[in-house]
């Protein structure tokens, strides 16, 4: 198969594989222009936040993330050809961090910490213990004892179930899922896992714009808000850092959401490994402290109210029928 080095554009998309995401805090201008009301498959949305940590995974540092797929055109885990208006790309089937790539590159993480804001306990702990920012890592992927095919993937790769698009729409929605017991995402201090981020699907959205040009594209990649938990059995230094991070999360909403947004084009690198076609690409990541309690409570109240109204309506109808 003929493959060329491609500009990293369209997260988890290729021509054959083209991918990009970049990030900033609280939705920037590009993300703000995405019309979430047009979504039909995905209900989760990025949550604006004042507290975030910024990570970046550079290919030069053997970091980043990986999209990969079966080169057999008849295989289920091949992926699909995009049908959205102005796209013309190919969607690879699997997604994972560079640390879990089929390439076996020896990568130990997907990204390293570069900075952040409104995490006072966390950054004070780093400063007081002379811990460099780049000692803090982020990783995700299938666990080390699991097969590559257990990474986040497109499931049955069915239109309307795992992804949604139309030749008359410039939007593609895509959901990457996995067995929660087979995958992991976490923070590390050096090579030591300190905080688990739990399981969540990965939501990937593309807005291909009014033209074939890349400049009017919007690409988003994000997760559900999740509860972070401390890894058991840590030494005092690592445990203190984990506690500081979790305290800041608790003080700023109680949940964590990972968000990547395409605001720049960079180069991805094609590779082969363990029978898969692979594209490695940089990973810019925003780790946001978010709150979901208030929207959930409102939604729950509305659902309860609707249920009561519906039940009352049924009772009224039944009473009328009895009187007849």
UniProtKB/TrEMBL annotation:
Keywords: Membrane, Signal, Transmembrane, Transmembrane helix. It comes from the Bacteria. It comes from Atlanticothrix silvestris CENA357. The chain crosses the membrane at residues 296-313. The lineage of its organism: Bacteria, Bacillati, Cyanobacteriota, Cyanophyceae, Nostocales. This is PEP-CTERM sorting domain-containing protein. Residues 1-31 form the signal peptide.
